[in-house]
Structure formats: structure tokens, C-alpha cells
Amino acid sequence: MGILTNLKTFIFVTFRVWKYQWLSDCRKVSGSPKLFHPLLLKGKGKISFGQNVQIGVINSPNYYSHYTYLEARNSDSEIHIGNNVSINNNFSAVAFSKITIEKNVLIGNNCSIIDNDGHHLEVDKRNEVNPKSTSVFIGENVFIGSNVVILKGVTIGKNSVIGNSAVVTKNIPENVVAVGNPALVIRNL
Q: Starting at the edge strand that comes first in sequence, how are the strands of the sheet with 98-101 ordered?
């Protein structure tokens, strides 16, 4: 029974991974992450993966039902993911300018990073394209808990920890723990 269940899971997940590879339209992709979870790559920009990048965690929520979404929207947009980064299930990153995730970063389940407002905030401009965008930078060895949202213009310093369900709206220094909405530093490491 156990071998049959594992085979069914392998086949199911393999077909889901292939489906999202087929649906991906980003043509400027470098590197090959280890896929344990479907990955959809969209946009006209550049998406790069370092060595030993893992997408998806088998024994974690949203493994069977969700996918990872990376979009480098415009021709000059970029998402860079460094070496030895592990990204849990249901992660999304949308770059109008640039999102950088340095080496050895751990990202929890159901997280999102966006370097723009999504829409203009002014009522008369909300349906216009390309709202304000400011790069996001995640330093090396950062640990991002589950359900975290990181907004435009944020830099998270190396070695810091972002607690579950935090909304990061401002820069977080190196070597600290930050939690809450909005995320605030609660202690040094």
C-alpha cells in the first residue's frame, strides 16, 4: 500500500509540475531549481536561480493544491534567487522593477513579495498600468516564517528572522527578529 501511494503521489505531482512548466511564458530564465511543487514563471523580464534552490516542501500545507508564482512583469523587471534558497509551498513574487533574494534564505508557506502597489493609489489612475515600484532586497541567511507579506521598497538585513503572518512595510536591520502588522523589531539576535 505504501509504495502504491508514493507512486500515485509522484505521478500526480509530476504532471502538475509539467502543466505549470507548459503554462509558463517567461523566456529569460537562468538556473534550474529543484521542483517539489509546481512553478509558474511569467512575464517579459528575467528570472534567475542560483545553485541548489528548492521550490516546494512535500510535508507541508498546500503541497497538493497550490503552486509557486514568479512574475518579472516588464522587459526590465528582474527576480534573482541566490544559492541554497528553500521556498515552501504557495509562494508568490511579482516584480515590476527588481526582487533579490540572497543566498541561504528560508521562506515559509504561503508568503508573497511584491515590489509595487499593484494599482495606482489615486482613484483616477487605478486602471492605468505600471504603478509605483521600488526594489525589494532580502539579505543572506534570512528566515521568513509562514504567511508573511513583504511590500515594495523593503530591505531585510542578513541573518534576520521575520515571524509568521508579519506584514513587512519598512526596512528590517541585520540580526533581528521582527513580527507583526506592520512588522516591528522585537529583539536582537
A: 28-30, 46-49, 78-81, 98-101, 136-138, 155-156
**Omega before 38 cis (within 30°)?**
no
Q: Is 119 tagged catalytic?
A: yes
pTM here is 0.94
Indicate the burial class of 11 (C-beta count within 10 angstroms; 0-12, 13-18, 19 or more): exposed
Edge-first strand listing for the sheet containing 68-72: 39-42, 68-72, 92-95, 112-114, 149-150, 167-168
Residue identified by cell 542578513 is 158
- Pairing outcome for strands 184-188 and 176-179: antiparallel
Point out the catalytic residue in the list 37, 80, 119, 120: 119
pLDDT tens per residue, range 60-89: 989 888 999 999 999 999 999 999 999 999
